Amino acid sequence: MKDEVVVIGAGGHAKVCVELLQAMGHRIAYCVGSADSSDHCVGVPVLKGDENLKKLRQAGYQRLFVAIGSNAIRVRLASLALEQGYQLVNAISPHASISPTARLGVGIAIMAGAVINAETRIADLAIINTGATIDHDCEIRTGVHIAPQCCLAGNVVVGRMSLLGIGCKVIPEIKIGDEVTVGAGGVVVASLPNRTTAVGVPVRIIKQLPDV
Ligand SMILES: CC(C)(COP(=O)(O)OP(=O)(O)OC[C@H]1O[C@@H](n2cnc3c(N)ncnc32)[C@H](O)[C@@H]1OP(=O)(O)O)[C@@H](O)C(=O)NCCC(=O)NCCS
User: Fold this and answer.
1) Is any atom of ligand 1 closer than 6 Å to the C-beta of 144?
2) Which protein residue has the closest C-alpha to ligand 1 atom 3?
3) Predicted pLDDT of residue 195
4) 181 pocket-lining for ligand 1 (C-beta < 6 Å)
5) Which residues neighbour 60 within 8 Å (Cβ) at sequence distance 6 or greater?
6) Which of 12, 16, 24, 112 has the smallest number of CB atoms closer than 10 Å to its CB?
């Protein structure tokens, strides 16, 4: 088995994740991008097309990180990679502060300056972006993206594949549903149902998609 990590994605988010993985001491073999990706991603060669995942697996690569910003695409590609026998690694900045009692899943990105406090749970494939702070006893579910400079107070739950846009604030005890988007700078003072988009200070719901 080869020890180097394969990264899915070759865009801006992948650039940050590649450098996080390198800061952890990982060597990155390839990024796997789309047909219109650049040839390199911060110096790492890019293979174009998802079919390369199977070839790399056959060539003995096993460790993988999905560096795609879109929550739905990240979760879908991770599930494809797991079916092919890859193992997901985490990309965690040495400049993040993570409580020893926090619990982390796999395939997670935690960027520089992020703070994760006591007994918070971060599920698989979540992104805790630059400078975001997540206080005690929060639950961040699978495939969530907490964008840069968000602040979550204690006991907040964020449902599967939700996005909190850059600079959001969430008061204690709030429950945010699955596939929710909170617009940049939003302040969440009441719980939000599944599949809603909410913006403003405090946030108001501007879109509600039907349940699937
Ligand atoms: C909330 C958001 C997803 C809405 O995008 P959209 O569905 O394309 O909606 P629109 O741009 O058409 O805006 C709809 C209305 O909401 C308003 N609006 C959009 N984003 C807003 C925000 N963050 N705060 C306050 N109002 C906002 C628009 O002004 C518009 O108002 P109007 O109907 O009175 O003209 C987007 O604006 C946003 O904030 N995305 C966050 C992105 C982000 O932080 N990503 C993290 C990257 S690391």
Assistant:
1) no
2) 183
3) 98
4) yes
5) 1, 2
6) 12
